[in-house]
Amino acid sequence: MFGFFNGYHTKLKWIFAVITFFLLFFDGALFANMAGFLTKGQYHIMPMLLVIWFVYAVLFELDLDLPIYAWTLLAGLIYDFFYFGVIGGFTVGLPIMVWVSKQLRFYLSDSIVSLCMIIILSITALQIFTYVAAFIAGLDVGNAANYVVHTFAPSLALNVIVAIILYLPFRQLFRKLKEI
Amino acid sequence: MKFFSTRRLVFVIIGIVVTVALLTGSVLVRNRRATPPVIQQFGNDVAGVVARVVNWPVAVTHGGYDSVAQLLDTYQENTQLRAKVDALAQEKVRAQVLENENKSLKNQLNLNETLTDYSLINATVISRAPSAWLSQLIINVGRNAGIKKNMPVVSGKGLIGRISEVDRTTSKVELLSDDSGSSNRFAIQITNKEGEAMYGIITGYNRNANRLIVGQVTSNIKLKKGDQVLTSGLGGITPKGLYVGEVDSIHNDASGLSKSIYIKPATDFGNINFVSVAIEK
């Protein structure tokens, strides 16, 4: 169905699905258990491992083998259902973010700096979208400057560091999976 | 190539319309209905099972780290606690005597149920929404355990929020610190040292200072820093006597006609692993 699991690289497709769902729930589990550290005062530093996973999937060209937009749509829908009960922020935000990283992939080289650039820009696209979405939905988002200082910037910093740490393991994993 | 070809423009416009419809529609459903649509409930229940499995190793690791951290100041804490336990034993006996007396007096007056009668259902936090404005907790009890929307939730020392969505085996808790503007309106009472009570409603939350705000207060009762704030049990589903926090400061509004009372919440909204849902009897 939609090429989720059939065709070539079936192992890659299955493992991609399992890790996607694991990270989807791991983000929340991590935030629940480390909230004392991640939400000090006004600060909300959000772990976004699922987002990093999707950006890397695009950077390592997994979208050639599996339907990445369908996966982002599904993961985004579950994310919105399970965490917020308000649908739209991630359901639409994740595909937009993947589209942004796909566009950027052609312009940037293979170095770690351009990798960071893509991750920063992709997460920024997602964050801006979710902010606008929450605003449209009528949630109390506070003012934009506050959001940038207390949520967006620290979350970005954390996730870029996590992404750099995860670069080598993910590269190994994707290479291995593509061989089989 | 132009970025916005006619075809692409049509797609973008349709996309925007669908997104806005999804967002506003789901918020409407969330606010108006007691339970979400069946498909959403089913999805959430399945997701809840997976979330529990994923949360387990994370919670165990977190628990282990906490234990080690606490071990370091155990000796000092133990000395303090021992002194407190002695005092507590006395209080407990006294509370029991008062409770019995209260029960018999209620019987004499034929008062069967009052606003203070409630029971607690305990729950574990299995996940927390990674978001700055809707940082909801997901807990492992739902409709099957008798949970209903808007029930108050307590943790540690006091009130932390209310149930915002109920599925069959999981529920979402909207924290007081979220201040989504839609539903965090708890009726509270503040009693001063002279025993006079003032009634009000929590109208907001100040993120800068981590203070709950009771606005539009016109009462002239004199309050001081440290006066205790409890739920009043008036107007609906919240029982009386849940601890909210203590008065921190009192500010006059710009008009000079009313005051705002700033309350220091009893619970740290950051570290919440277990909660209890208060159900009125």
TrEMBL record, chain A:
Keywords: Cell membrane, Cell shape, Membrane, Transmembrane, Transmembrane helix. InterPro entries: Cell_shape_determining_MreD (IPR007227). It comes from the Bacteria. This is Rod shape-determining protein MreD. It comes from Periweissella fabalis. It is found in: Cell membrane. GO terms for biological process: regulation of cell shape. It is a multi-pass membrane protein. The chain crosses the membrane at residues 12-31, 43-62, 68-100, 112-139, 151-170. GO terms for cellular component: plasma membrane. Belongs to the MreD family. NCBIfam families: shape_MreD. The gene is mreD. Its main location: membrane. It holds the Pfam family MreD.
